[in-house]
Amino acid sequence: MSYRNTDRSNAATGPRADGTLDLQQLRTFLAVHRSGSFTAAAQLLRLSQPTVTTQIRSLEQRLGHLLFERLPRGVAPTAEANDLAAQVAEPLDALEVVAGPGAGDASAPPAPLRVAGPAEVLHELVLPSLAPLVEEGVRLRVRTGPVDDLLEELRGGGHDLVLSPLCPRGRALVADPLADEEFVLVASPSWADRIRRDRLTRQGASSLCGAPLVAYGDDLPILRRYWRHVFGVRLTCGPAVTVPDLRGMMAAAENGAGVTVLPRYLCREALDQGRLVALTEPEKPPVNTMYLVRRPGVSDNPHLDRVHRHLVSAARGW
After folding, report:
1. 133, 127 contact by CB (below 8 A)
2. Are 52 and 75 in contact (CB under 8 A)?
């Protein structure tokens, strides 16, 4: 397979008589493959959607088979598309490193870097770590939201960097481990006295049966994992309070609403000041890995690598 470069004015041309594949078509193909959408690829490449559609159809005609199945929302790659992506991704990414991500006004300041993730992680860890870079010229646009939605938006070009407790599958995104967050079973001092930590050590989860539970949702996702990992039993109680925000859970627990499980980075100060008490200190507490997720290839924002390196360095102290 041979590749030939073209400028963007020829981006919608058809197959070539000499048998080479159009390099811009391959770039467009890879953007569609990674983003899962013609619309998202057009935004990433700064092309119109009809141009993207024409390029993909021309490439399919040249290759003699479909590359994408059209879905109600987005597209799904065929087996042939996955094979082609595996062949061209590495050389195209290497070419982007040499040639740069694309045209633009070199004198213009970089666009703000779009960072997204869970609100608690951003507020407690990420923004304090990145604050010094703002004085040095880095501009940030920060978004919070459900991680699945943020990762989907990242694929489509809606963000530059996402902090995620989930490691996305596939080749559409690159995830680098950042830090492990440790979870702690906590309660207010009054509830800790009522539970009596020595009894909890002897009797395990059964000593918590009378305590109300403060959870993220009705399915108790964090608490169920803690019960299974530390106590080796299934949590069958329902929550007394649900708050879809870890900071809200902590506030409820501090004020005596009941027992909950929180990441240690979030409740460290409350533990140090005695507003919360750690009910157990297992030798191997449950942990969850936080990832820095980005799109593969070269970003057109020069601050992305800088922010990425800064967060990796800062995370050593988290």
Report:
1. no
2. no
d(CA 136, CA 130): 10
Q: Is the dihedral of CA 96, 99, 103, 108 positive or negative?
A: positive
Question: Mean pLDDT, to the nearest integer, of 42-68?
Answer: 90
Would you say 280 and 201 are in contact if contact means Cβ atoms under 8 Å apart? yes
What is the token pair recorded at 3?
């590749």
Tell me the pLDDT tens digit for each residue of 197-239: 656 766 678 778 889 999 999 999 999 999 999 999 999 999 9
Q: Is there a contact between 140 and 115 (Cβ–Cβ < 8 Å)?
A: yes
* CB contact at 8 A, 236 and 224: no
User: pLDDT confidence of 3, banded at 50, 70, 90?
Assistant: very low
Taking the C-alpha atoms of residue 193 and residue 277, their distance in angstroms, rounded to an integer, is: 10
Based on its alpha-carbon atoms, the radius of gyration of the chain, rounded to whole angstroms, reads 25
State the residue for tokens 């390196």. 309
Query: What is the number of other CB atoms lying within 10 angstroms of the CB of residue 83?
Result: 11
Q: Do 217 and 244 meet the contact criterion of CB atoms below 8 Å apart?
A: yes
Read out DSSP for 94-107?
HHHHHH-S----TT
Whether 287 contacts 181, CB under 8 Å:
yes
| Amino acid at residue number 243 | V
**Beta-bridge partner residues of 117:** 144
